[in-house]
Amino acid sequence: MKQKSVTLVEIIVSMVILSLILVGIAGLFVAGKTQLKRAQCKQEALNFAREKLEELEALDFDHPDLQTEPTTTSHTETDTLPNGWPITWTITDMDEDFNPAITSEPQYKQITVTVEWEEP
After folding, report:
1. Half-sphere exposure of 90 toward its Cβ, with a 13 Å CA cutoff?
2. Cβ-based neighbours of 100, under 8 Å, separated by 6 or more
3. Alpha carbon distances (Å) from 30 to 20, 27, 36, 112
4. Distance (Å, rounded) from C-alpha 48 to C-alpha 113?
């Protein structure tokens, strides 16, 4: 009668193959964690920018915080968020053609909010 058995070499080869597969899967988990952290940073930056934009949009058109210098059509301010990221907003006076080189009273204001962060 013949008995089938598994040799030590077969066991070692199967363990090596299984280890290689598991290392590949572990790499996917690390990459997924990195992508999740990036998405969290982007979402947090978006929330800060949205909050600042809503704060500025709630002001009256002639509010001092929305005024530009008499010789320019734009005004830029920078602040630091609680997590240390810089946030910058620019207010640009625009005419009816959305032209920043206005010669009369501005009819529109363009608000640009920028948040900078370092990718993990």
Report:
1. 10
2. 73, 74, 92, 93, 94, 110
3. 16, 5, 10, 35
4. 9
Contact 91, 82 (CB under 8 A): no
- Give the model's confidence band at 71: pLDDT under 50 very low, under 70 low, under 90 confident, else very high: low
Q: What is the pLDDT of residue 1?
A: 59
Q: Which residue has the tokens 């077969």?
A: 10
pLDDT at residue 75 is higher than 70? yes
* Confidence (pTM): 0.70
Q: What is the largest CA-CA distance in the chain?
A: 104
Instruction: Spell out the SS3 assignment of the chain.
Output: CCCCCCCHHHHHHHHHHHHHHHHHHHHHHHHHHHHHHHHHHHHHHHHHHHHHHHHHHCCCCCCHHHCCCCCCCEEEEEEECCCCCEEEEEEEEECCCCCCCCCCCCCEEEEEEEECCCCC
Mean pLDDT of all residues in 115-120: 84
